[in-house]
């Protein structure tokens, strides 16, 4: 993935030789979509390292252009505000991911460990290192503070069982970007049966997250 005007093109997420070139506006929209999805999804979503790297390059490119601009020009102030807005979205996106990693770290690492070959990673290399270090520090802390003072048969604890999982049954608001047909919805009550719905482009819905999780991953819907 590469942003027009930014240096150093990146390969697309499929890992092939074909490059996907985005305009700066499209790149920022991709960042905002990833940010909103991450913000409102109950689980940690797929990592977007290509987008992050291209946005950072684009920000550097924009700041270099500002340094060459004339001082006192109103356009300079407007562009500086846009840079700060983009930096805020980027920081908020990365911070949101770190919060989820800290909250669900055993499950995040287990999911990463068990993912099939060729399946997209939910962690960047830096996030993976952070999650492993966070888990090691947590285990060390629990051992030093409490576990070593307990009977031998109680000195082991399963973090996978102790740390709550993401609640995939929580409800989310979404906007449909691409029309979807025959989406299977699980019943809310015992007397109900499974049923299917069609999601029209542009429509908005309140729906259980796990029903639309694949659509969020594919970009067919946008969490709002």
Describe the structure.
By secondary structure, the chain is of the alpha+beta class. It is built from six helices and seven strands, in the order ββαααααββββαβ. The protein has helices at residues 24-40, 49-68, 74-114, 125-145, 159-162, 209-218, and strands spanning 2-3, 21-22, 171-176, 180-185, 195-199, 204-208, 221-223. The strands form three sheets. Strands 6-3-7 form a three-stranded antiparallel sheet. The longest helix is centred in the middle third of the chain and has 41 residues, at 74-114. The chain is flat and about 70 Å long. The model is unreliable at 6-18 (pLDDT under 50).
SS field, number of helical segments: 6
Rg over CA atoms: 22 Å
Q: Low-confidence parts, pLDDT < 50 over ≥5 residues? A: 6-18
Element string (H = helix, E = strand): EEHHHHHEEEEHE
Core attributes:
224 residues; alpha+beta; two-stranded parallel ribbon
Produce a short descriptive summary.
Helices cover 50% and strands 13% of the residues. With 224 residues, it is α+β, with helices and mostly antiparallel strands. Helix 1 crosses helix 2, helix 1 crosses helix 3 and helix 2 packs antiparallel against helix 3.
């Amino acid at each position: 993935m590469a942003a027009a005007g930014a240096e150093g093109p990146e390969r697309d997420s499929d890992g092939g030789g074909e490059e996907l070139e985005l305009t700066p506006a499209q790149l920022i929209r991709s960042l905002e979509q990833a940010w909103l999805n991450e913000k409102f999804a109950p689980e940690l979503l797929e990592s977007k390292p290509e987008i992050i790297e291209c946005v950072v390059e684009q920000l550097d490119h924009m700041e270099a252009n500002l340094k060459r601009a004339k001082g006192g020009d109103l356009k300079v102030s407007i562009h500086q505000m846009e840079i700060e807005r983009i930096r805020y979205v980027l920081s908020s996106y990365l911070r949101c991911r770190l919060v989820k990693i800290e909250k669900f770290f055993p499950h995040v690492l287990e999911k990463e460990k068990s993912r099939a070959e060729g399946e997209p990673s939910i962690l960047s290399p830096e996030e993976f290192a952070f999650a492993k270090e966070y888990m090691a520090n947590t285990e060390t802390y629990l051992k030093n503070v409490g576990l070593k003072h307990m009977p031998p048969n109680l000195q082991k604890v399963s973090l996978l069982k102790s740390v709550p999982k993401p609640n995939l049954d929580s409800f989310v608001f979404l906007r449909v970007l691409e029309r979807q047909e025959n989406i299977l919805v699980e019943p809310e009550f015992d007397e109900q049966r499974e049923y299917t719905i069609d999601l029209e482009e542009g429509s908005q819905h309140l729906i259980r997250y796990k029903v639309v999780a694949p659509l969020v991953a594919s970009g067919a819907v946008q969490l709002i």
